[in-house]
Amino acid sequence: MSMIPRFVPFLMLTAAVTAVVPAVVPAVLPAALAAGVLPAPPMPVGGEAPSAAFFDTLRSADLRLATIAYRLTTANAALCDRLQPQVGMPIHALTQYGPDARKGATATFGFESTIGVEAVVAGGPADRAGVRPNDSIVAIDDRPQPGLPSADAPESATARDAAEAVVTEAPVGRPLRLTVLRDGKRLPITITPVTGCRSRFEILLGSGLDASADGAIV
Predict the structure, then answer these.
(1) What is the pTM of this model?
(2) What is the dihedral sign for C-alpha 201, 26, 203, 71?
(3) What distance in Å separates the CA atoms of residue 102 and residue 62, rounded to the nearest whole number?
(4) Hey, which bits of the chain come out as E strands?
(5) Closest CA to 11 of 85, 61, 109, 80
(6) Per-residue pLDDT tens listing for the chain (218 residues)
(7) CA 160 – CA 80 distance, rounded (Å)
(8) Residue 183 neighbours by CB under 8 Å, 6+ apart
């Protein structure tokens, strides 16, 4: 299975915050993985397609990291010189998954368009607005997002990155408008973001337990 490295979007931590927690995050995340707080997804063997358990565990790990990141970025906003809207809504794109993984990803994550909501942080802005895991995003602030990709679309995070950028670059303190597909129905949702630090948390799939922070990415 080929897969673009997994990022937890909309969650950014600036150098101001990593100056406070540079030793904490790299030390805590491997320990959390080892303790099962951030479960490591069971990696597929050889060329076999990933199982439903793989995708379920991946979602669980991304949500737990997103929850930690949301709390860090919003609680430390006063320390940051670069801010962005925080919505507590990790997204991903079907095209991040290799062709052999897309059928399983669609079955687990319910993709009805390229961009999907992987998870929702409990009590966060997206949760309060009524966004649900497996919602598919067709527009952000009236900017259309791509429909379902062709079967032979190359593996790429470009669509996900473009969707993230719409949120990241939105004015702080302004409501964010989404249009989502849920069970085939288009629903308008307005999110009231919380201001937070601008940084990015990511999970890279692998067999080791390690973490690092460079002032921009954790």
Answers:
(1) 0.79
(2) negative
(3) 18
(4) 6-8, 83-86, 91-93, 115-117, 136-140, 143-144, 176-182, 185-191, 194-197, 201-203
(5) 85
(6) 445 444 433 333 333 333 333 333 443 444 444 444 445 555 555 567 889 999 999 999 999 999 999 999 999 999 999 999 999 999 999 999 999 999 999 999 999 999 999 999 999 999 999 999 999 999 999 999 999 999 889 999 999 999 999 999 999 999 999 999 999 999 999 999 999 999 878 776 655 556 656 555 55
(7) 25
(8) none
Residue written as token pair 């949702």 = 189
Q: How far is CA 15 from CA 35, 76, 150, 185, 216, in A?
A: 28, 11, 40, 41, 7
Reference 75, options 62, 63, 88; nearest CA is: 88
Q: Which CATH superfamily is domain 6-203 in?
A: PDZ domain (2.30.42.10)
SS3 65: helix
Token pair belonging to 158: 């470009």
